[in-house]
User: Which sequence fits this backbone?
């Protein structure tokens, strides 16, 4: 495989593009085609941002990858470490520059903050356990904010963004509980406060998502099909219970619940 394709891992970036387009649809509804230029720009921004983040990850984790991912460009000797750093700077910096084309202050600020968080995470925060968990969760939620910003209505996506952030924290903690035996050089939350307390905190975050999902029902923000979100809520509550005895199952089902919730928000755009 081409060394730059391995470095950037564009498959992840494509999933990010799908996410921001869906987020734009949730905010703009059937009027999404009126904003096709800005949506195209946001797709390029997300692609560059994720590719840049992956390149920075390979630059930072080059020693770990000698064992964990020896086939990647740097540990395999096919790319110099500084080349990966230059690629990361170009892609992350480029995402900010391209975002300027939207001429939208909210969009530009979101991208700039996301880049700062990404660099901070890779350089230091991912070694800080819970702080790193929260950083990843915030980056996940910001994708929905960006999707709303590019169509001029970030407010409509605040609830789904907050839900994504909260349940992502729960999922990240679950992963840390599962990986306690293999984590080296990181002081994760379960290591700091113990598995039981970490699981309890993950439970709180898993339950917080369903609590927030009630607000659009109260505010009548979406059509009747949005009520299918109760399926996702039920799965999240199951995750809250499962994290105590099977953290792997909890974080696996959390991913399923996030997809179901996303579909519910999309369906809710259609009013009958």
Assistant:
């Amino acid at each position: 495989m081409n060394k730059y394709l391995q470095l950037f891992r564009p498959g992840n970036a494509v999933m990010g593009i799908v996410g921001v387009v869906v987020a734009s649809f949730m905010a703009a509804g059937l009027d999404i085609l009126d904003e096709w230029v800005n949506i195209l720009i946001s797709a390029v921004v997300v692609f560059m941002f994720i590719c840049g983040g992956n390149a920075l990850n390979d630059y930072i984790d080059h020693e770990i990858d000698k064992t964990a991912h020896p086939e990647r460009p740097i540990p395999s000797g096919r790319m110099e470490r500084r080349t990966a750093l230059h690629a990361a700077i170009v892609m992350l910096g480029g995402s900010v520059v391209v975002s300027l084309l939207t001429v939208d202050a909210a969009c530009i600020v979101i991208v700039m903050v996301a880049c700062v968080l990404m660099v901070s995470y890779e350089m230091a925060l991912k070694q800080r356990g819970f702080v790193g968990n929260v950083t990843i969760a915030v980056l996940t939620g910001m994708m929905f904010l960006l999707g709303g910003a590019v169509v001029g209505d970030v407010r409509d996506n605040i609830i789904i963004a907050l839900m994504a952030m909260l349940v992502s924290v729960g999922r990240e903690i679950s992963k840390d509980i599962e990986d306690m035996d293999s984590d080296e050089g990181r002081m994760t939350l379960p290591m700091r406060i113990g598995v039981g307390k970490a699981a309890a905190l993950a439970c709180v975050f898993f339950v917080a998502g369903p609590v927030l999902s009630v607000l659009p029902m109260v505010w009548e923000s979406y059509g009747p099909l949005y009520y299918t979100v109760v399926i996702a809520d039920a799965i999240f509550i199951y995750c809250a219970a499962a994290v105590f005895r099977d953290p792997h199952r909890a974080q696996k089902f959390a991913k399923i619940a996030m997809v179901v919730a996303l579909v519910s928000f999309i369906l809710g755009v259609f009013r009958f």
